[in-house]
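Is this the right way to post structure tokens for a design question? Let me know if I should format differently. Anyway, here goes:
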């Protein structure tokens, strides 16, 4: 028992040191917690005046939230070589979640500082507010506070704004860079750390510029690197009334695992910031070719017919960890694709077929109509050649095609499609829109599948 525990600790520690694979969510949480907590421990060691428990707690929260805000930049910067920031889908979840908490906390920040002072002094509230708002040394803080509130709200309601995603993203990044600079300016002006003040201010500015450097890298340096390894468009083919099959040829030593995705730009320059994430539908065996299934949705995906074979395509990646490697021990594989979620799922299925995987494999594939189902011939071929593979087509709208389940991929559909596999010891791979993934995960709760065996990719950040 003790040696088992020892082995586990050693394995985790060696992963922490080497991090050759993607770090687990648990490790990432611990590492991020350490990054925001350790500076407080150092500050607490310094011999500074004790200003009472309330001020102490507030200073702790201010520090943690400020460092969390700084971490937002590398989290969103697509840093595939820095393992701590390489799990982009986890990063984006945390970026959204932490962003909201940071917004709420800093929105309350002036209140948390001024209210106790006002309560203790018994001064006129109106005068205290006017005094605070007009104090010159608080100006940067006040501008940062207003900008932060507006920018956080515009992030929460981004889908309701009449602005294209790429333009919103540029404003989002630029706005928060300004907020971070103003907030750092504010804390270095009003923060009091006694005799250590100037050193601590230097640390704040260093942390601020380091965090912004990640974004500058993404916008200024990375495009140069990407332009040196551009792919060529081999073909673009319409494969359903709203889906395209895009094939690229890679000219560099690009490797990936089935199920991963890349950011693609088909602009004439790698510096034009119009990169879109798309899952790779092919397997490494098809390299140097890479294929993608792209569904028309908005401005960019509706303009794919303008692409010209032979043109350069900039590829940033691979990213994502909905890959097969982590689950060798499962007894069966359940693949679930909703709509264009078939892109990474067909990549995984092709990899399983190439490996001649003997385990039962089930594919549940949903679309609005049967005419949107892709790769039907290939799927039929796999049913004949793989040891134990079955496809269940699920159509929301009625169709004349006989072998399909009408409705959504819900609890009943899952139950009927998975009757003959050991679901509780299976690995599940699921991809689709946010709503589809959320509902299908809800439907999967009826089975006792360990959470670690359910892998999913949502087709939006
Ligand atoms: C990890 C991942 C893998 C994906 N794989 C595929 C795939 O294989 N096939 C496919 O058809 N679609 C895929 N998508 C979705 C695809 O990226 C969007 O449909 C596409 O970017 C929409 O661009 P648009 O200009 O046509 O539409 P818009 O109307 O501009 O955008 C529609 C929505 O797509 C998302 N989006 C748009 N641009 C970006 C961007 N630059 N970065 C991130 N999200 C963006 C936003 O949520 C936006 O609200 C994937 C998305 C993610 C996050």
């Amino acid at each position: 028992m003790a040696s088992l525990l020892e082995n586990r600790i050693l394995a985790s520690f060696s992963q922490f040191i080497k991090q050759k694979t993607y770090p687990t969510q648990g490790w990432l949480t611990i590492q991020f917690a350490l990054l925001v907590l350790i500076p407080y421990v150092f500050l607490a060691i310094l011999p500074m005046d004790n200003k009472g428990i309330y001020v102490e707690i507030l200073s702790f929260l201010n520090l943690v939230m400020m460092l969390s805000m700084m971490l937002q930049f590398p989290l969103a910067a697509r840093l595939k070589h820095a393992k701590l920031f390489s799990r982009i889908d986890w990063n984006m979840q945390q970026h959204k979640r932490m962003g909201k908490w940071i917004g709420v906390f800093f929105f309350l920040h002036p209140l948390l500082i001024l209210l106790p002072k006002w309560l203790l002094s018994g001064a006129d509230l109106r005068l205290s507010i006017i005094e605070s708002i007009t104090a010159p040394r608080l100006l940067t803080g006040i501008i940062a506070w207003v900008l932060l509130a507006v920018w956080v709200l515009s992030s929460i309601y981004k889908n309701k704004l009449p602005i294209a995603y790429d333009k919103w993203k540029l404003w989002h990044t630029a706005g928060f860079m300004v907020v971070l600079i103003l907030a750092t300016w504010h804390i270095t002006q009003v923060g009091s750390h006694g005799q250590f003040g100037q050193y601590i201010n230097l640390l704040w500015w260093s942390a601020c510029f380091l965090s912004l450097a990640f974004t500058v890298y993404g916008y200024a340096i990375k495009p140069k690197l990407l332009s040196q390894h551009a792919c060529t468009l081999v073909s673009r083919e319409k494969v359903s009334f709203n889906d395209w099959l895009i094939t690229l040829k890679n000219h560099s030593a690009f490797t990936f695992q089935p199920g991963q995705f890349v950011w693609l730009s088909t602009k004439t320059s790698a510096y034009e910031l119009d990169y879109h994430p798309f899952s790779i539908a092919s397997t490494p065996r098809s390299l140097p070719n890479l294929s993608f299934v792209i569904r028309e949705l908005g401005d960019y995906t509706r303009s794919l017919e303008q692409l010209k074979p032979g043109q350069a395509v900039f590829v940033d990646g691979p990213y994502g960890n909905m890959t097969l490697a982590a689950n060798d021990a499962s007894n069966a594989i359940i693949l679930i694709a909703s709509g264009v979620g078939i892109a990474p799922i067909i990549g995984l299925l092709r990899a399983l077929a190439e490996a001649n995987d003997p385990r039962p494999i089930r594919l549940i594939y949903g679309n609005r109509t049967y005419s949107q189902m892709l790769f039907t011939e290939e799927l039929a071929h796999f049913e004949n050649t793989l040891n134990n593979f079955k496809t269940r087509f699920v159509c929301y709208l009625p169709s004349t095609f006989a072998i399909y389940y009408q409705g959504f991929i819900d609890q009943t559909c899952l139950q009927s499609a998975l009757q003959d596999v050991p679901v509780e010891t299976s690995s599940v791979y699921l991809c689709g829109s946010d709503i589809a993934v959320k509902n299908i995960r809800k439907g999967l709760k009826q089975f006792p599948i360990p959470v670690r065996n359910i892998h999913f990719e949502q087709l939006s950040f």
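Format looks fine. Someone answered above. Worth noting: The chain has three domains: 24-223, 231-319, 325-458. DSSP finds twelve helices and twelve strands in the chain.
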